[in-house]
Amino acid sequence: MLIRRASDIVPSEVTPESLFRARRTWLGRAALLGVAAAAPALPLASVMAQGARLAGVKPNPHYALAGEKTNPVTEFRSYCNFYEFGSSKSDPAQYAGTLKLRPWTVAVEGAVLKPRTFDVDELMRLAALEERVYRLRCVEGWSMVIPWVGFPLSALIQQVQPTGQAKYVEFTTLADRAQMPGVRSGILDWPYTEGLRLDEAMHPLALLTFGAYGEMLAPQNGAPVRMVLPWKYGFKSAKSIVRIRFVEHEPRSAWMKANPTEYGFYANVNPNVDHPRWSQASERRLGEFGKRKTLLFNGYGEQVASLYAGMDLQKFY
Amino acid sequence: MSERWQPSPRAVQRMRWALIALASLPLGRLVAGAVLGTLGANPIEAVTHSTGTWTLVMLAVTLAVTPLRRLGGWPWLLRLRRTLGLLTFAWACLHALTYFWFDRFFDWADIVRDIGKRPFITAGFAAFVLLVPLAATSTNAAIRWLGGRRWQRLHYAVYAVAVLGVAHFVWLVKKDLREPLIYAAVFALLFALRIAGWLQEARRRARDAKSASPLAMRRKAF
User: Residue A276's closest chain B neighbor by CA?
Assistant: First the structure.
């Protein structure tokens, strides 16, 4: 199957993936090491790593993101924040290739009537997979546009039936010292955890994600299953999830623990609330020279603003 | 001691050109990368980080001249220090320019706000501002005009530049402090070597003063 993209994007605007692979990937990797001459000898497997094509996935026309250009898949796969594999943007592409993706289970537990441990292949079949083009805004001030493949997290939540005690959802990422060099370094308090309020988790935009660009997720992008929450900064979207737990009290996320003065629980994209050490008013869309104004809730205000009605967003950042 | 090898003035001049060429290599790589599109997914970030890295590296190399002269017994290294200092300044200018241009697009009101608001920008900008008078007084005429002692005192500001430069890097990173701490360690070592040098010098002077005292002279005479 071809990479599906929204019909409003002129195909000629998008450089064919094969061309990018042939030219940019190896040149880019070479430049990172500063040895252009040695490029052909470099191990490219991790950047080139591609999961199987996801057959029969339809783009959801409601999330086509009219008028915004999808970033090339090479950017998506070579420029990642995934501290379990190292803190540099190029580390995940370099080191995540060895992540063992099968067998993989996701324990769904806590305040639910039907707790269950899913095999990831089983989880994938829980609802129809669809493609959604979302903006991704990183707290560091850059952004991309990515065609994800998944289904709304609400489909899973309805299956396990949260009890009245379930007010929040906590996501836990795999923390395997043997496979993840970053976990050995102790940059964060592993395992990586993230959380949402139950109504945020039930929101139709919250996507339980298995693929991108029409293929299964690459390990450096959070394979085999991750969250995508387009109205929040990227770090809220936990990667390589092994546990989803329903809890009564607001969970403390890994970044809240690491730096409580800089990271709050909500982490909604908000140009009016600065990160203490860098501005959030604007962002650089990868591939663009100029900067864009950052939009409140990353441009998803129409859909999500009601979740935060009456809340002081300066306080609950 | 007196028969040590000394490079000729021409050799020193050649070394200066070699240093300029060497310190410009990363710039060539950046320009080529920008033209060929090989700087990765975020080329502007790559340029910003690279120019910052080379500023710190060149600063460390410049500050290594004094301890190396002493420890290695190569006093002539002093004749390369001005070139190294100016190369540090050149990289600092490129780094500042990437910020003024690619990050802020010369929006000066915004830049002033940013300098006031973000500690890592404050530190980086202060370091850059402090480098300007040092570069401006690098000519022989400026040294004569200021007088050696005052020139020397002014140029002690380079230590503040090093501290601010490292603070700039430490406050920039999100969590992983390992790389900025390597620079902190290098500068700490360079400072420690200087302090050791000063102490040794002070002891020597005290000894000389003692041996030069009238009493000691008289003793010697006997």
Answer: B118
In a domain, A248, yes or no: yes
CB contact under 8 A, B42 and A277: no
Who among A79, A187, A279 is closest to B41 (CB)?
Answer: A79
Supply the CATH number for residue A172's domain: 3.90.420.10
pLDDT in tens, A165-218: 999 999 999 999 999 999 998 889 999 999 999 999 999 999 999 999 999 999
A315: in domain = no
pLDDT attached to residue A52: 82
Q: Residue A279: which pLDDT band, with cuts at 50, 70 and 90? A: confident
| pLDDT greater at residue A47 or residue B63 | B63
Domain ranges for chain B, please list them. Answer: 9-221
Contacts of B46 in chain A (CB under 8 A): 31
Q: Is there a domain that residue A1 lies in? A: no
Q: If you measure CA to CA, which chain B residue comes closest to A289?
A: B102
Which residues in chain B have their CB less than 8 angstroms from residue A87's CB? 173-176
Q: Which of the residues in chain B have pLDDT under 50? A: 1, 220-222
For residue A56, the enclosing domain spans 11-308
Give the pLDDT of residue B3. Answer: 60
| Chain B: residue whose CA lies nearest to A76 | B41
Q: How confident is residue A27, by pLDDT bands cut at 50, 70 and 90?
A: very low
Instruction: Supply the ipTM of this predicted assembly.
Output: 0.80
Contacts of B45 in chain A (CB under 8 A): 142, 284
Q: Which helix (H) or strand (E) holds B76?
A: none
Minimum CA–CA partner of A24 in chain B:
B38
Contact A31/B39, CB-based, under 8 Å?
yes
Q: Does residue A5 fall inside a structural domain?
A: no
Q: Give per-residue pLDDT as tens, A88-139.
A: 999 999 999 989 999 999 999 999 999 999 999 999 999 999 999 999 999 9
CB spacing of A279 vs B40 below 8 angstroms: no
Which chain B residues are Cβ-neighbours of A188 within 8 angstroms?
Answer: 175
